[in-house]
Every structure is written in structure tokens, then in C-alpha cells.
Amino acid sequence: MSGLPTRIAVAGVSGSGKSTLAKRISDRLGIPYVELDSLHHGPDWTPRPEFVADVRALVARPAWVSELQYATAKPLVRVRSRRAARRWLASMTKASR
Q1: Residue 2 forms part of a structural domain
Q2: 41 vs 8, 52, 63, 74, CA distance in Å?
Q3: Would 1 be classed as within a structural domain?
Q4: How many domains does the chain have?
Q5: Is 55 helix (H, G, I), strand (E, B) or coil?
Q6: What is the pTM of this model?
Q7: Which residues contact 85 (CB under 8 A, 6 or more apart)?
Q8: Among candidates 19, 22, 23, 74, which has minimal Cα distance to 52?
Q9: Is 75 contained in some domain?
Q10: In terms of Cα–Cα distance, which of 96, 88, 97, 94 is closest to 1?
Q11: pLDDT digits (tens, 9 = 90+) for 42-77
Q12: What pLDDT is stored for residue 22 in this prediction?
């Protein structure tokens, strides 16, 4: 699977299957899947204060698959995903020359 992106964010509306698709991509590519819901929710479904810090730690990892959700997480995930996508596209362009 060399050359494929290793930081993958699956976007979609609520109930569209983001988590299901993210898990399948994770299984197929052998990249760790991290469910943002599990980082966001604490006891009794209350938001965890450390959520943003946990998302920052997640996106700093070299490889992950997750859903793109939660207003506080989206900017962190998108920035990292865009950088990774640019590097991947650049490597694919060089390889095709």
C-alpha cells in the first residue's frame, strides 16, 4: 500500500455511514481507526474537556483513519489532512513523470 495516504478523514452528514466506511478503510489498509465519538464523550455522554487535546494528538500521528465531525475537531483534522493530501498528490505527480 506504499504511496497511499495514511491520514484519512471520512466526511458526511449524520447517519451517512462515516464510521462504517472509516472502519472498512482501516481494515483494508491496515491503518489504525480512531472513533471521534469515543474521544468526545465522557460519562453520561458529557463532552470530555480533553477532547481537543486528544484530537491534536491523533492528527499528529503518522497514520490514522477517523470521521470528520465535531466543530472543534474539524479545523484540526482538515489542516493535517490537506497537508497529507498535498504531499501524496505531489508524490504521485513525480512518480508519473
Answers
A1: no
A2: 22, 12, 23, 16
A3: no
A4: 1
A5: helix
A6: 0.73
A7: 5
A8: 74
A9: yes
A10: 88
A11: 999 999 999 999 999 999 999 999 998 888 888 888
A12: 93
